[in-house]
Design goal:
Blueprint lengths: L19 H9 L13 E5 L4 H12 L4 E5 L7 H6 L7 E4 L3 E4 L1 H11 L15 H27 L3 H21 L17 H21 L12 H10 L2 H4 L5 H12 L7 H8 L5
Parallel strand pairs: 1-2
Antiparallel strand pairs: 1-3, 3-4
Helix pairs in contact: 2-4, 2-7, 5-6, 5-7, 5-11, 7-10
Length: 283
């Protein structure tokens, strides 16, 4: 009788559905979505290990928006996904019957605009404060342009020397993110408030995966950035413990098996992985 391979072992294959709390949330959002006073019901197509999906999905949960979650196999793209996004990338968001958006950042901006006047819902970006909103967008740009690529360069590096370089670069990017946080006026979230917001949502999927995936495959120690009780540590605990994040997060093994192909830098792992290998910007 053969034993089950350990999670994240060499050659491990990705899972085709979420696990843990995320799977419960998928089941809760498996029916056709209703409209609300701010727009038509939404369908989000996503894969369980994808961090770009994670941030769009967490925003939908945060806003208590009407949506259906459709899990797809990103390597065997179903017709329903391709009909919504011919490129076959996730996340894809279908609004009503025929309006479609791709790109997680665009989806987040759509949600900002859709719920701009919804004072009964959390604000992804500060309402009525143009300067703080601009500061948030600067931080989002930094995360997207430099922090996220550094995560993949570190994870995909195969030679020891490249891994050491990748670790230094990733730690430096996390430190930049830490230094960009606004003073804590009401709470530990990025903007110093007591509410999860856009910058938190944009960054957390990679920081969270670093504590599991990079720790497992590259022996990464988050304490290099997140000293116990420090600003970054308080931020992580607040964000990772937020109900919208917990509800969209799978068990560790889902991520370990999903990222084994990145850690081994297998050919055609994803368009993101290919872009990193070729030195191009993320797709």
């Amino acid at each position: 009788m053969s034993s089950q391979p350990a999670p994240g072992s060499k050659g491990a294959n990705y899972h085709k559905e979420c696990s843990g709390p995320a799977l419960d949330t998928v089941h809760k959002h498996s029916s056709e979505p209703h409209d609300d006073e701010y727009g038509e019901g939404m369908t989000i197509f996503g894969a369980n290990f994808c961090p770009f999906v994670h941030r769009a999905w967490a925003a939908l949960e945060l806003l208590d928006a009407p949506y259906r979650m459709v899990e797809v196999d990103p390597y065997q793209k179903p017709k329903e996904l391709l009909d919504s996004n011919p490129r076959g990338l996730v996340p894809a968001l279908r609004i009503g019957k025929d309006k479609v958006l791709g790109e997680s950042q665009v989806i987040l901006e759509y949600l900002v605009d859709r719920y701009e006047t919804a004072v009964d819902k959390p604000a992804l970006l500060p309402r009525g404060d143009a300067y703080r909103k601009a500061r948030c967008r600067l931080a989002v740009d930094q995360v997207n342009r430099t922090l996220i690529p550094s995560f993949y360069r570190y994870l995909q590096a195969q030679e020891t020397e490249k891994q050491i370089e990748g670790a230094k670069e990733f730690v430096a990017e996390l430190q930049k993110f830490n230094e960009s946080m606004l003073p804590e006026q009401k709470g530990p979230f990025w903007d110093g408030s007591d509410s999860l917001g856009m910058v938190d949502i944009v960054a957390f999927p990679w920081v969270y995966r670093a504590t599991i995936v990079l720790k497992h495959f590259r022996a990464f120690d988050m304490s290099a950035v997140a000293q116990q009780g420090g600003r970054f540590d308080r931020w992580m605990k607040a964000v990772f413990g937020h109900p919208a994040v917990k509800a969209t997060t799978s068990n560790d093994n889902t991520y370990l098996d999903g990222y084994a192909r990145y850690a081994e830098n297998r050919p055609n792992t994803s368009q993101v992985a290919n872009a990193i290998n070729s030195g191009r910007g993320l797709p």
